[in-house]
TrEMBL record:
Membrane topology (UniProt): Multi-pass membrane protein
UniProt function note: Part of the ABC transporter FtsEX involved in cellular division.
Gene Ontology biological-process entries: cell division
Location in or out of the cell: Cell membrane
Pfam families (alphabetical): FtsX, FtsX_ECD
Assigned protein family: Belongs to the ABC-4 integral membrane protein family. FtsX subfamily.
Protein name per Swiss-Prot or TrEMBL: Cell division protein FtsX
Organism in which the protein naturally occurs: Kribbella jejuensis
UniProt keyword Transmembrane present: yes
Length: 303
């Protein structure tokens, strides 16, 4: 009997506030979709960092007679200088075990010809103009600065190149985009929270006389709140399901079908990350429904 009454009251409440309920569903749908996108953007940035930072090398280019680096004196690097540079690199605690690779002029020239095989510049460059170099992998790519400081300026060193100087601006831009998505999602979640609270407030005000009668006959607070709670939870679940479906469609059509096929060199978010994001979205949607409902209906329980 009580269940029938609660379901009947729920149906009446949805009919009375149908337009507001639809607005709540749409707001939750949009806000959770953006929130889920921000979660996946966070996962994607972390995957890209892990993928690229593990491949980061420090390249130490040695002097030629045409080099103008501060460690050069207008002459080719000597064998003694090369031995000293290699000793400093290998003794540095941040250098990975077996992480030092030496590239000779001949090897550099072969790489140059492959890179610019369709360019006329190849015919103007000779092997003697190439630079010998040390390519170094680090135990922790985040600690690149220590090795750069130790090597830069040594006699025989022309330049020290670190890929982080090119990757960091990219990741900073991605981080700003990520936090911008979180900010936009947060504003929409607040809007959804306020809209749910407003909808429940209007519904409770319209039924204040019924609530007063139920209080007089001894109904418990939870029993009175339950129809309002179910109304809000139903709207939140519908909005969350639509948002999760939207997120899965974005991941499938834009990432799995296109991005992964076009940019195979990058690791992309997949089903695992999307499933984790959808679970968080559902939990957030339920919190958006439950919290404002309890806080709003408390006022009318004092009738």
């Amino acid at each position: 009997m009580r269940l029938n009454y609660i379901l009947s009251d729920l149906g009446i409440g949805l009919k009375r506030n149908l337009s507001m309920t639809i607005a709540v569903v749409v707001t939750i749908w949009v806000s959770l979709s953006l929130f889920g996108s921000a979660l996946l953007a966070h996962e994607q940035v972390n995957l890209m960092k892990g993928n690229w930072y593990d491949k980061i090398q420090i390249s130490v280019f040695l002097c030629t007679k045409d080099s103008g680096g501060r460690g050069c004196s207008g002459a080719e690097v000597t064998q003694e200088q090369k031995n000293r540079i290699q000793q400093v690199i290998e003794s540095n605690p941040d250098t990975a075990p077996d992480g030092v690779y030496t590239e000779s002029k001949a090897q550099a020239f072969e790489s140059f010809k492959k890179l610019y095989k369709d360019s006329p510049i190849v015919s103007t460059v000779t092997q003697d103009q190439m630079q010998e170099s040390f390519r170094i992998r680090l135990k922790d790519p985040q600690r690149y600065q220590n090795l750069v400081s130790a090597v830069a300026g040594l006699p025989g060193v022309d330049t020290v190149q670190d890929l982080r100087q090119y990757l960091d601006p990219l990741f900073k831009a991605l981080n700003w985009l990520q936090w911008g998505s979180y900010a936009g999602a947060g504003l929409l979640l607040v809007a959804a929270l306020m809209q749910i609270a407003n909808t429940i407030r209007l519904a409770a005000y319209a039924r204040r006389r019924e609530i007063g009668i139920m209080r007089l006959v001894g109904a418990s607070n939870f029993y009175i709140q339950l129809p309002f709670l179910l109304e809000a939870v139903l709207a939140a679940i519908i909005g969350a399901v639509l948002a999760c479906g939207t997120l899965w469609m974005i991941v499938y059509f834009m990432i799995m079908q296109r991005a992964q096929e076009t940019f195979r060199v990058w690791q992309w978010v997949g089903a695992t990350e999307t499933f984790r994001a959808t679970l968080i979205m559902v939990v957030v949607g339920l919190v958006l429904a439950v919290v404002p409902t309890f806080l709003t209906t408390r006022k009318y329980l004092k009738v």
